[in-house]
Design brief:
Blueprint (H helix, E strand, L loop, with lengths): L2 H19 L3 H17 L4 H17 L2 H7 L3 H17 L5 H16 L3 H11 L5 H14 L4 H7 L6 H8 L8 H5 L7 H11 L7 H8 L5 H25 L36 H10 L6 H14 L2 H12 L5 H13 L3 H13 L1 H4 L12 E3 L5 E3 H4 L10 H17 L5 H18 L6 H4 L7 H14 L5 H7 L5 H14 L6
Antiparallel strand pairs: 1-2
């Protein structure tokens, strides 16, 4: 570095240091590009490289968000000097967490761009005992390094101390090579780790994932079985899509090749169970397994099975979901998921299943209210007014003590809400007809104000759902029902009915 350039370098560096002392980070960032460029052109002297890297570290530690982002563009050019400063900041528990996080991210990006020093730093720190915050930062850094980190992380699975962090880092790498090491975790004593590993395995549509997912169905932990069901649903969906694409290519009327499962013989040597003896050969076989999971003893597994079946959009899935919906032992949360799954199938027969269920509830819902001593209990509010306890709970059906009826109203509400979310003009029209037909059958004279007001047969949430759904479906023929609900005794029902009426009949609004 000639004398003039050297002197100018020193002057500019001194000014940048003074700006840093008074927290003028914009001035520091303005000076950095020239300092780094001169340092590179003049032979990258170690002493100057260390000084510049330390100045950049000062910005990363104390600077604002914008200045930290500006500095991050220069770490790659600083090489090993920058990696050393980033490591120091990352490991300093007294540093601002955001600064530590950006240091870890920068190390990961440098490692992904081929800087050996940065990659080795991250992997070395991962193999050492770290606190939770540091491990979280390192796991994020691993994400940028991709497949280059898989081998080292696989080695870390052998230690009980480093296995949790290694698993959480592996699952963030979107590369099929992680399937084999993650298969080693499926027998770990920690069910959370098993679930995390199986979730990542289920994201890959290759020969090794299916046997592992099938094995996960036998896991005693419900979280693991849920991830197995989720992964199998994705697998079946992909196979059915391949089958649809192959239908045009099959001229002999045989099975579409996309429906069949092919297991590479090389996969059996990677710790992957053999499924040939389990009779799993097509997407329909996986679908049958998902149907069995509707009866799992864990509710979360049943709910995931229903969701996965709905995404398959097959006639057999509609049949299985219909049977579950109509079972008297099906809990309300599962019925809610089954209803949602039926809507997701986008099939006409699914709408008819929901219509049939609604009409089967009419006998109970249309029964005349039976007064009881519970429904007539009166309590006094703070301002001295008398309040009916049943009404205060939002249930306006007098004497509504039968738990089955309460459950039925909740399910009816869920179905009507889901009917308001169907897509397609024809399906929206049919959904509107279902809701209006159910209403008309429920009441002898569905537009008779004296019979309906105040409504004593339907809960407030159910009446709200009716108004909201009719508004979403926007069928002008629902105007009469909305004009009844707009005079409801519950303000929340009136507000929804008014909004729906403005949507259904905008021309009649002032």
């Amino acid at each position: 570095m000639d004398q003039n350039v050297a002197q100018r370098f020193e002057d500019n560096f001194a000014q940048a240091q003074e700006a840093a002392i008074v927290a003028q980070w914009d001035d520091v960032c303005d000076a950095l590009p020239w300092l780094v460029e001169v340092w590179e052109k003049q032979g990258k002297k170690a002493a100057d490289g260390q000084r510049i890297a330390q100045l950049m570290g000062l910005v990363l530690s104390l600077g604002d968000t914008e200045s930290r982002r500006t500095v991050s563009r220069f770490w790659k050019r600083m090489g090993a000097y920058g990696a050393a400063v980033l490591e120091r900041i990352l490991l300093d528990s007294e540093e601002d967490f955001h600064g530590r996080w950006m240091a870890g991210r920068s190390l990961g990006e440098l490692g992904a761009n081929g800087m050996t020093e940065a990659r080795d730093t991250v992997l070395r720190l991962m193999s050492q005992r770290q606190d939770d915050d540091t491990l979280a930062i390192l796991s994020g850094a691993i994400t940028f390094m991709g497949a280059a980190a898989i081998e080292t992380l696989t080695d870390l699975l052998g230690s009980a101390e480093t296995r949790p962090s290694a698993v959480r880092s592996l699952v963030k790498i979107c590369h099929p090579s992680i399937v084999t090491p993650l298969a080693m975790v499926l027998d770990d004593p920690d069910p959370q780790l098993r679930a995390i590993a199986l979730e990542a395995i289920g994201n890959f549509q290759d020969e090794r994932s299916l046997p592992l997912l099938l094995s996960g169905l036998k896991d005693p932990a419900s979280a693991v079985r849920r991830e197995a069901v989720l992964g199998l649903g994705r697998k079946a969906k992909a196979l059915f899509k391949d089958a649809e694409k192959g239908e045009g290519e099959n001229s002999d009327g045989g099975d579409s090749p996309g429906e069949h499962i092919h297991i590479d013989s090389d996969a059996q040597g990677c710790g992957v169970p053999d499924i040939s003896a389990q009779g799993i050969s097509s997407a329909h076989d996986i679908e049958a397994i998902l149907v069995e999971r509707l009866s799992d003893f864990s509710l979360v597994v049943c709910e995931q099975a229903a969701i996965s079946l709905g995404r398959l959009q097959t006639p057999s899935a509609v049949v299985a979901l219909s049977e579950t919906l109509n079972k008297s032992t099906t809990p309300v949360p599962l019925r809610r998921n089954v209803t949602q799954a039926l809507i997701w199938t986008d099939r006409e027969e699914a709408l008819e299943v929901l219509s049939q269920y609604l009409h089967e509830t009419i006998k109970n819902l249309a029964a005349e209210p039976q007064l009881s001593h519970h429904s007539s209990q009166i309590q006094t509010s703070a301002d001295g007014d008398s309040v009916n306890k049943t009404a205060s709970m939002g249930i306006v059906f007098s004497g509504f003590e039968n738990q089955e009826l309460l459950t039925q109203q909740e399910t009816v509400k869920d179905i009507i809400q889901m009917l308001g979310r169907v897509n397609g003009d024809e399906r929206r029209l049919r959904a509107s007809e279902i809701v209006q037909g159910w209403w008309s059958t429920l009441f002898d004279d569905p537009l008779n104000l004296s019979q309906l007001m105040p409504s004593r047969r339907l809960s407030v949430p159910l009446r709200e759902a009716i108004a909201q759904t009719l508004g979403r479906l926007s069928n002008p023929s629902s105007q009469g029902i909305l004009e009844i609900l707009i005079q409801d005794e519950a303000p929340s029902v009136r507000y929804r009915a008014e909004a729906a009426l403005r949507t259904v009949c905008p021309s009649q609004q002032p």
